[in-house]
Amino acid sequence: MEPSVTLDTRQHPPRLRIAGDWTLEHYARLRRDSERLREQPGVGAQADLHQLGRLDTAGASLLAELLGAERLAHCSDQLPEASRALLATVYRSLQDYRIPHREPEQPVLVQLLARIGRAVDTLWQDMLQLLGFIGLILATLGARLFQPHRWRITPVVAHIEQTGLDAAPIVALLTFLVGAVVAFLGATVLADFGATVFTVDLVAFSFLREFAVLLTAILMAGRTASAFTAQIGSMKANEEVDAIRTLGLNPVELLVLPRVLALLVALPLLTFVAMVCGMVGGAVVCALSLDIPPAMFLSLLHSDIGVQHFLVGLLKAPFFAFLIAAIGCLEGFKVSGSAESVGAHTTSAVVQSIFVVIVLDALAALFFMEMGW
User: Fold this and answer.
1) Cβ contact 317:362 at 8 Å
2) Which domains can be identified in the chain, with CATH numbers?
3) Residue 9: helix, strand or coil by DSSP?
Protein backbone atom coordinates (compact mmCIF):
# COMPACT_ATOMS: atom_id res chain seq x y z
CA MET A 1 0.00 0.00 0.00
CA GLU A 2 1.43 3.36 -1.09
CA PRO A 3 2.32 5.56 1.90
CA SER A 4 1.16 9.14 2.28
CA VAL A 5 1.19 11.97 4.78
CA THR A 6 -1.22 14.87 4.26
CA LEU A 7 -2.53 17.80 6.26
CA ASP A 8 -6.32 17.88 6.15
CA THR A 9 -7.30 21.52 6.67
CA ARG A 10 -11.00 20.97 5.91
CA GLN A 11 -11.54 19.91 9.49
CA HIS A 12 -11.15 22.13 12.49
CA PRO A 13 -8.69 21.69 14.02
CA PRO A 14 -6.63 20.37 11.06
CA ARG A 15 -5.49 16.75 11.18
CA LEU A 16 -2.45 14.93 9.87
CA ARG A 17 -3.59 11.88 7.96
CA ILE A 18 -0.92 9.16 7.80
CA ALA A 19 -1.65 6.14 5.65
CA GLY A 20 0.06 3.29 3.82
CA ASP A 21 3.19 1.30 4.50
CA TRP A 22 5.91 3.31 6.20
CA THR A 23 8.87 1.09 5.40
CA LEU A 24 12.45 1.38 4.19
CA GLU A 25 11.31 0.85 0.61
CA HIS A 26 9.53 4.23 0.65
CA TYR A 27 11.94 6.04 2.97
CA ALA A 28 13.30 8.61 0.50
CA ARG A 29 9.83 9.68 -0.62
CA LEU A 30 8.45 9.83 2.91
CA ARG A 31 11.47 11.85 4.00
CA ARG A 32 10.81 14.49 1.36
CA ASP A 33 7.10 14.63 2.15
CA SER A 34 7.76 14.97 5.89
CA GLU A 35 10.25 17.79 5.42
CA ARG A 36 7.90 19.63 3.08
CA LEU A 37 5.02 19.19 5.52
CA ARG A 38 6.98 20.68 8.41
CA GLU A 39 7.14 23.99 6.55
CA GLN A 40 3.35 24.30 6.30
CA PRO A 41 1.28 26.08 8.96
CA GLY A 42 -0.81 23.86 11.15
CA VAL A 43 1.68 21.01 11.14
CA GLY A 44 1.18 20.72 14.90
CA ALA A 45 -2.31 19.34 14.39
CA GLN A 46 -3.49 16.03 15.76
CA ALA A 47 -2.57 12.90 13.84
CA ASP A 48 -4.82 10.21 12.40
CA LEU A 49 -3.02 6.84 12.20
CA HIS A 50 -6.01 4.57 11.56
CA GLN A 51 -4.97 3.92 7.95
CA LEU A 52 -1.29 3.26 8.76
CA GLY A 53 -0.19 -0.06 7.26
CA ARG A 54 3.08 -1.85 7.76
CA LEU A 55 5.76 -0.14 9.87
CA ASP A 56 9.46 -0.83 10.24
CA THR A 57 12.35 0.93 11.98
CA ALA A 58 12.98 3.40 9.14
CA GLY A 59 9.32 4.47 9.01
CA ALA A 60 9.08 4.60 12.79
CA SER A 61 12.04 6.99 12.96
CA LEU A 62 10.32 9.34 10.48
CA LEU A 63 7.05 9.21 12.42
CA ALA A 64 8.84 9.85 15.71
CA GLU A 65 10.60 12.91 14.26
CA LEU A 66 7.41 14.21 12.65
CA LEU A 67 4.97 13.73 15.53
CA GLY A 68 7.08 14.04 18.68
CA ALA A 69 6.47 12.46 22.07
CA GLU A 70 3.20 14.24 22.99
CA ARG A 71 1.27 13.42 19.81
CA LEU A 72 2.67 9.87 19.79
CA ALA A 73 1.24 9.40 23.28
CA HIS A 74 -2.19 10.72 22.23
CA CYS A 75 -2.54 8.67 19.06
CA SER A 76 -0.78 5.47 20.09
CA ASP A 77 -4.11 3.84 20.90
CA GLN A 78 -4.90 3.91 17.16
CA LEU A 79 -2.09 1.41 16.46
CA PRO A 80 -1.60 -2.28 17.14
CA GLU A 81 0.53 -3.28 20.12
CA ALA A 82 3.58 -4.20 18.00
CA SER A 83 3.60 -0.84 16.19
CA ARG A 84 3.23 1.07 19.47
CA ALA A 85 6.17 -0.80 20.99
CA LEU A 86 8.29 -0.17 17.90
CA LEU A 87 7.48 3.55 17.87
CA ALA A 88 8.27 3.89 21.58
CA THR A 89 11.58 2.08 21.22
CA VAL A 90 12.65 4.12 18.21
CA TYR A 91 11.68 7.38 19.87
CA ARG A 92 13.72 6.56 23.00
CA SER A 93 16.68 5.69 20.82
CA LEU A 94 16.44 8.99 18.98
CA GLN A 95 16.23 10.89 22.25
CA ASP A 96 19.26 9.09 23.67
CA TYR A 97 21.36 9.69 20.56
CA ARG A 98 23.74 12.59 20.67
CA ILE A 99 26.01 13.75 17.87
CA PRO A 100 29.57 12.99 19.01
CA HIS A 101 31.50 16.05 20.02
CA ARG A 102 34.45 16.48 17.72
CA GLU A 103 37.52 17.96 19.27
CA PRO A 104 39.10 20.80 17.32
CA GLU A 105 41.96 19.57 15.22
CA GLN A 106 45.37 20.55 16.52
CA PRO A 107 48.15 21.92 14.33
CA VAL A 108 50.44 19.40 12.69
CA LEU A 109 53.45 20.55 14.73
CA VAL A 110 51.55 20.05 18.00
CA GLN A 111 50.45 16.58 16.90
CA LEU A 112 54.03 15.69 15.94
CA LEU A 113 55.39 16.87 19.29
CA ALA A 114 52.64 14.96 21.11
CA ARG A 115 53.52 11.75 19.27
CA ILE A 116 57.20 12.23 20.04
CA GLY A 117 56.35 12.81 23.69
CA ARG A 118 54.22 9.67 23.85
CA ALA A 119 56.99 7.66 22.18
CA VAL A 120 59.59 8.93 24.65
CA ASP A 121 57.28 8.18 27.58
CA THR A 122 56.65 4.65 26.23
CA LEU A 123 60.39 4.10 25.84
CA TRP A 124 61.00 5.29 29.41
CA GLN A 125 58.27 3.03 30.80
CA ASP A 126 59.61 0.04 28.84
CA MET A 127 63.09 0.70 30.16
CA LEU A 128 61.83 0.86 33.75
CA GLN A 129 59.90 -2.39 33.27
CA LEU A 130 62.97 -4.08 31.79
CA LEU A 131 65.17 -2.95 34.69
CA GLY A 132 62.60 -4.18 37.19
CA PHE A 133 62.29 -7.52 35.39
CA ILE A 134 66.09 -7.91 35.32
CA GLY A 135 66.13 -7.30 39.08
CA LEU A 136 63.40 -9.92 39.54
CA ILE A 137 65.40 -12.46 37.50
CA LEU A 138 68.58 -11.79 39.47
CA ALA A 139 66.70 -12.01 42.79
CA THR A 140 65.11 -15.32 41.81
CA LEU A 141 68.42 -16.67 40.55
CA GLY A 142 70.17 -15.66 43.77
CA ALA A 143 67.45 -17.29 45.88
CA ARG A 144 67.68 -20.61 43.97
CA LEU A 145 71.45 -20.67 43.53
CA PHE A 146 72.06 -22.47 46.82
CA GLN A 147 69.07 -24.80 46.48
CA PRO A 148 70.27 -27.54 44.10
CA HIS A 149 67.10 -29.58 44.58
CA ARG A 150 65.15 -26.77 42.86
CA TRP A 151 67.41 -26.52 39.81
CA ARG A 152 65.57 -27.35 36.60
CA ILE A 153 68.32 -29.06 34.60
CA THR A 154 66.10 -30.75 32.00
CA PRO A 155 64.43 -27.55 30.72
CA VAL A 156 67.82 -25.81 30.63
CA VAL A 157 69.33 -28.57 28.48
CA ALA A 158 66.28 -28.60 26.22
CA HIS A 159 66.50 -24.86 25.69
CA ILE A 160 70.25 -25.07 25.06
CA GLU A 161 69.49 -27.52 22.27
CA GLN A 162 66.78 -25.25 20.82
CA THR A 163 68.68 -21.96 21.09
CA GLY A 164 72.23 -23.22 20.54
CA LEU A 165 72.50 -26.49 18.66
CA ASP A 166 69.59 -25.82 16.31
CA ALA A 167 70.90 -22.33 15.52
CA ALA A 168 74.51 -23.39 14.87
CA PRO A 169 74.07 -24.12 11.12
CA ILE A 170 72.53 -20.75 10.27
CA VAL A 171 75.09 -18.90 12.40
CA ALA A 172 77.96 -20.79 10.78
CA LEU A 173 76.68 -20.21 7.25
CA LEU A 174 75.96 -16.52 7.78
CA THR A 175 79.31 -15.70 9.38
CA PHE A 176 81.20 -17.75 6.77
CA LEU A 177 79.62 -15.72 3.97
CA VAL A 178 80.10 -12.41 5.80
CA GLY A 179 83.75 -13.31 6.44
CA ALA A 180 84.22 -14.03 2.75
CA VAL A 181 82.58 -10.72 1.78
CA VAL A 182 84.69 -8.74 4.27
CA ALA A 183 87.87 -10.37 2.98
CA PHE A 184 86.91 -9.71 -0.63
CA LEU A 185 86.08 -6.04 0.03
CA GLY A 186 89.23 -5.58 2.11
CA ALA A 187 91.38 -7.12 -0.58
CA THR A 188 89.80 -4.89 -3.23
CA VAL A 189 90.55 -1.71 -1.26
CA LEU A 190 93.99 -2.73 0.04
CA ALA A 191 95.17 -3.86 -3.41
CA ASP A 192 95.47 -0.20 -4.45
CA PHE A 193 98.09 0.25 -1.72
CA GLY A 194 99.88 -3.04 -2.25
CA ALA A 195 98.83 -4.19 1.22
CA THR A 196 96.57 -7.14 0.47
CA VAL A 197 98.37 -9.17 3.11
CA PHE A 198 96.65 -7.06 5.76
CA THR A 199 93.32 -8.54 4.69
CA VAL A 200 94.08 -11.26 7.24
CA ASP A 201 94.29 -8.68 10.03
CA LEU A 202 91.08 -7.00 8.82
CA VAL A 203 89.08 -10.21 8.91
CA ALA A 204 90.53 -11.33 12.25
CA PHE A 205 90.04 -7.98 14.00
CA SER A 206 86.52 -7.48 12.70
CA PHE A 207 85.28 -10.95 13.58
CA LEU A 208 87.05 -11.44 16.89
CA ARG A 209 85.99 -8.07 18.29
CA GLU A 210 82.69 -7.17 16.61
CA PHE A 211 81.14 -9.11 13.78
CA ALA A 212 80.96 -12.56 15.35
CA VAL A 213 79.25 -11.57 18.58
CA LEU A 214 77.10 -8.88 16.94
CA LEU A 215 75.80 -11.05 14.10
CA THR A 216 75.15 -13.92 16.48
CA ALA A 217 73.31 -11.69 18.94
CA ILE A 218 71.15 -10.19 16.18
CA LEU A 219 70.31 -13.67 14.92
CA MET A 220 69.41 -14.75 18.44
CA ALA A 221 67.29 -11.63 18.87
CA GLY A 222 65.30 -12.51 15.77
CA ARG A 223 65.17 -16.24 16.36
CA THR A 224 65.23 -16.84 20.11
CA ALA A 225 63.72 -13.69 21.63
CA SER A 226 60.71 -14.05 19.35
CA ALA A 227 60.39 -17.74 20.27
CA PHE A 228 60.51 -16.93 24.00
CA THR A 229 57.84 -14.26 23.59
CA ALA A 230 55.59 -16.50 21.53
CA GLN A 231 55.93 -19.43 23.94
CA ILE A 232 55.25 -17.46 27.12
CA GLY A 233 52.67 -15.27 25.37
CA SER A 234 50.70 -18.33 24.25
CA MET A 235 50.78 -19.65 27.79
CA LYS A 236 49.58 -16.27 29.05
CA ALA A 237 46.77 -16.21 26.48
CA ASN A 238 45.69 -19.73 27.50
CA GLU A 239 45.81 -18.74 31.19
CA GLU A 240 48.53 -21.30 31.88
CA VAL A 241 50.63 -18.67 33.65
CA ASP A 242 47.69 -17.96 35.97
CA ALA A 243 47.39 -21.68 36.60
CA ILE A 244 51.07 -21.83 37.58
CA ARG A 245 50.51 -19.02 40.09
CA THR A 246 47.38 -20.74 41.39
CA LEU A 247 49.44 -23.86 42.13
CA GLY A 248 51.75 -21.73 44.27
CA LEU A 249 54.66 -21.89 41.79
CA ASN A 250 56.82 -19.04 40.59
CA PRO A 251 56.50 -18.35 36.83
CA VAL A 252 59.88 -16.62 36.77
CA GLU A 253 61.55 -19.69 38.24
CA LEU A 254 59.73 -22.11 35.94
CA LEU A 255 59.62 -20.19 32.67
CA VAL A 256 62.29 -17.48 32.72
CA LEU A 257 65.33 -18.87 34.52
CA PRO A 258 65.75 -21.98 32.27
CA ARG A 259 65.61 -19.78 29.16
CA VAL A 260 68.02 -17.19 30.54
CA LEU A 261 70.54 -19.82 31.68
CA ALA A 262 70.26 -21.69 28.39
CA LEU A 263 70.99 -18.57 26.35
CA LEU A 264 73.86 -17.65 28.68
CA VAL A 265 75.44 -20.96 27.69
CA ALA A 266 74.41 -21.04 24.03
CA LEU A 267 75.31 -17.53 22.89
CA PRO A 268 79.03 -17.61 23.88
CA LEU A 269 79.38 -21.01 22.19
CA LEU A 270 77.67 -19.73 19.06
CA THR A 271 79.90 -16.64 19.16
CA PHE A 272 82.96 -18.90 19.14
CA VAL A 273 81.52 -20.82 16.19
CA ALA A 274 80.88 -17.51 14.42
CA MET A 275 84.47 -16.36 14.99
CA VAL A 276 85.88 -19.57 13.55
CA CYS A 277 83.52 -19.67 10.57
CA GLY A 278 84.04 -15.99 9.77
CA MET A 279 87.81 -16.38 9.69
CA VAL A 280 87.47 -19.57 7.65
CA GLY A 281 85.42 -17.64 5.11
CA GLY A 282 88.11 -14.98 4.99
CA ALA A 283 90.83 -17.65 4.68
CA VAL A 284 89.02 -19.22 1.71
CA VAL A 285 88.90 -15.87 -0.12
CA CYS A 286 92.54 -15.20 0.74
CA ALA A 287 93.56 -18.60 -0.58
CA LEU A 288 91.56 -18.33 -3.81
CA SER A 289 92.02 -14.63 -4.66
CA LEU A 290 95.14 -13.38 -2.86
CA ASP A 291 97.44 -16.42 -3.01
CA ILE A 292 97.67 -16.49 0.77
CA PRO A 293 97.65 -20.19 1.72
CA PRO A 294 95.99 -21.35 4.95
CA ALA A 295 99.38 -21.94 6.61
CA MET A 296 100.39 -18.34 5.97
CA PHE A 297 96.94 -17.15 7.07
CA LEU A 298 97.35 -18.94 10.41
CA SER A 299 100.90 -17.65 10.79
CA LEU A 300 99.83 -14.03 10.27
CA LEU A 301 96.91 -14.60 12.60
CA HIS A 302 99.20 -15.93 15.30
CA SER A 303 101.78 -13.17 14.97
CA ASP A 304 99.54 -10.11 14.53
CA ILE A 305 96.39 -10.82 16.57
CA GLY A 306 96.54 -10.91 20.35
CA VAL A 307 94.33 -13.07 22.52
CA GLN A 308 92.74 -9.97 24.07
CA HIS A 309 90.74 -9.39 20.90
CA PHE A 310 89.22 -12.83 21.24
CA LEU A 311 88.41 -12.17 24.90
CA VAL A 312 86.86 -8.77 24.16
CA GLY A 313 84.45 -10.32 21.67
CA LEU A 314 83.61 -13.25 23.90
CA LEU A 315 83.13 -11.04 26.97
CA LYS A 316 80.16 -9.26 25.40
CA ALA A 317 78.28 -12.47 24.60
CA PRO A 318 76.88 -13.21 28.12
CA PHE A 319 75.57 -9.65 28.50
CA PHE A 320 73.85 -9.81 25.13
CA ALA A 321 72.43 -13.23 25.98
CA PHE A 322 71.00 -12.08 29.29
CA LEU A 323 69.33 -9.01 27.80
CA ILE A 324 67.91 -10.89 24.81
CA ALA A 325 66.40 -13.58 27.04
CA ALA A 326 65.05 -11.01 29.53
CA ILE A 327 63.40 -8.90 26.81
CA GLY A 328 61.89 -11.95 25.12
CA CYS A 329 60.42 -13.30 28.36
CA LEU A 330 59.18 -9.88 29.53
CA GLU A 331 57.32 -9.26 26.28
CA GLY A 332 55.74 -12.69 26.65
CA PHE A 333 54.37 -11.75 30.06
CA LYS A 334 52.93 -8.53 28.59
CA VAL A 335 50.62 -10.44 26.22
CA SER A 336 47.00 -9.55 26.97
CA GLY A 337 45.31 -12.75 25.79
CA SER A 338 44.67 -12.52 22.05
CA ALA A 339 46.54 -13.81 19.02
CA GLU A 340 47.00 -10.22 17.84
CA SER A 341 48.68 -9.33 21.12
CA VAL A 342 51.04 -12.30 20.79
CA GLY A 343 52.11 -11.11 17.33
CA ALA A 344 52.54 -7.50 18.42
CA HIS A 345 54.69 -8.35 21.43
CA THR A 346 56.74 -10.85 19.43
CA THR A 347 57.59 -8.09 16.97
CA SER A 348 58.32 -5.73 19.85
CA ALA A 349 60.68 -8.28 21.44
CA VAL A 350 62.71 -8.61 18.24
CA VAL A 351 62.94 -4.85 17.71
CA GLN A 352 63.87 -4.10 21.32
CA SER A 353 66.46 -6.90 21.46
CA ILE A 354 68.22 -5.77 18.28
CA PHE A 355 68.14 -2.15 19.42
CA VAL A 356 69.57 -2.95 22.87
CA VAL A 357 72.26 -5.22 21.40
CA ILE A 358 73.47 -2.58 18.94
CA VAL A 359 73.45 0.22 21.52
CA LEU A 360 75.27 -1.91 24.08
CA ASP A 361 77.83 -3.02 21.49
CA ALA A 362 78.51 0.60 20.53
CA LEU A 363 79.01 1.58 24.17
CA ALA A 364 81.27 -1.44 24.75
CA ALA A 365 83.34 -0.55 21.67
CA LEU A 366 83.85 2.99 22.94
CA PHE A 367 84.77 1.71 26.41
CA PHE A 368 87.30 -0.84 25.15
CA MET A 369 88.79 1.73 22.80
CA GLU A 370 89.29 4.24 25.60
CA MET A 371 90.79 1.51 27.81
CA GLY A 372 93.18 0.51 25.05
CA TRP A 373 92.07 -3.13 25.05
Assistant:
1) no
2) 4-96 (3.30.750.24), 147-371 (no CATH)
3) coil
